[in-house]
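Practice problem: predict the structure.
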Amino acid sequence: MDYREIADRVLGMLQRADGNDPSRGHLTMNNWEWPTGVALYGIYKTYQQSGDRAILDYMTGWYDDMLSRPEKPHRNVNTVAPVLGLVCLYDETHNPAYLPVIESWADWVLHEMPRTEYDGLQHCTVWNKHWQQLWCDTLFMVGLFLAKAGIVLNRPEWVDEAEYQFLMHIRYLQDKRVGLFYHGWTFDGRNNFADAFWARGNAWFTVSAVELYDITKRDDAAMRMIRSAFADQALALWKYQRVNGLFTTLIDVEETYCETSATAAIAYGILKAVRIGWLPDGKYADMGMLSANAVLGQIDENGAVQGVSGGTGMGHTLQHYKDIIVTPTAYGQGLTFLMLTELMLKEENNA
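Answer:
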């Protein structure tokens, strides 16, 4: 299968998207927000794999346009996400204009971002500070940025902080019996809200854990704990995978709808974990490919990834997750990019 052609089609849809065409749902790249941040990281990883300079030029144009705008983004968990791609771009181009932006965001995260008890990164958004709340999403939106910036700018204490946040989230979000992750935790009440094993929330950890290792190349005590949590989660995901390869939006609730973005992210994380030696081959490689092929079947002729759940706030009931709309999104495209890069690499290694 020509995975590069599929990646080009997925990218083409994202480049054409302006968010105004109802048939394209929530596809837009015209803002500095978390869906674009996820998409840009996926685009960057596609560039890394393909070496296509046009992809890097697209990223450069996007960031140069956004940074030239007079209005500045509100600072919260979600708006940190695009800075991850900026660090990657800086690592490639060494454009000095990017450096103060990166350093400013890192300073905000480390010294001004609201914290929970025990110094967890509170999942503050533009709408709500989410007092004393930890969400799975934060690991991708902020944790990977801190780690990547720490490596690129030689600030190991930033990497230490990223690892600490992973351990905090594992402590309060991973169910010790099942191995799956709850969507969130609140110290104000000390509970996991609806006790929801939300698929994309789990996928944020699946992706972020292997990316943290890939970025830092650390194998310290913290990473060993993260790896053990990953192994527990992977076994649970293997048990709950549907026969069609997809995961339901509530992983352990069969009657909820199948969701593509989580499946793409899980496929990426599992296949990468097998490749780097975190998981044994065999059933996990089969699991990853079953999910990957299911996601490929969700990409339409225009390159839009179908079956993606819309933005999902914290649910206080399981019904909240069942009612989330299904629509193409920038992050759905971005997580599919990640999966495609692993498929391209796998194909090259098997050639």
